[in-house]
Write a structure and sequence with these properties.
single chain, about 160 residues, alpha/beta, five-stranded parallel β-sheet, globular
């Protein structure tokens, strides 16, 4: 199904990143490993969503050969006030760096969270600090506005 979608839309497989949930992997790990290896061989990027929640296993990182980890918002929410959440986020970032994986933090809502993540070396974030989820037409308008501000030299988050 994914191969068909890539072919029909004429998107380069490298531009597609699939977020894997634990439930998909846990249902049939052997089958999931085979399918994901085939997708990765075609150039599709793989990301473990909500890493560190549920029953996530470090063996997933080796077995499924993913490209990046996504830090769950439940850890990001209190990184400015909870030393345990800060330590977990710091450890996941270091783990990703050590395994040469990309890292993205979700649920970034404050400048303090963003500053912490940048200081720790997290290069990609998403959250309401930047924008709520948008419908396609609203996303296009959002990008055009950012481009307009950028060309005028105006700063944005």
């Amino acid at each position: 199904m994914i191969s068909d979608a890539v072919r029909e839309t004429r998107i380069a497989p490298e531009q597609l990143e699939l977020e894997l949930t634990e439930s998909v992997i846990a249902q049939d790990p052997a089958h999931a490993a085979d399918v994901l290896a085939q997708l990765r061989a075609r150039g599709v990027r793989l990301c473990i969503d909500d890493f560190g929640t549920g029953y996530s296993s470090l063996s997933y990182l080796k077995r499924f050969a993913v490209d990046r980890l996504k830090i769950d918002r439940s850890f990001v929410r209190d990184i400015s006030t909870d030393p345990d959440d800060a330590a977990i986020v710091r450890a996941v970032i270091q783990l990703a760096r050590s395994l040469r994986l990309g890292i993205i933090a979700e649920g970034v809502e404050t400048h303090e969270q963003l500053a912490f993540l940048r200081e720790e070396g997290c290069q990609e974030v998403q959250g309401f600090l930047f924008s709520p989820p948008l419908a396609p037409h609203a996303f296009e308008a959002f990008l055009l506005e950012r481009e307009r501000l950028s060309t005028r030299g105006e700063a944005f988050t």
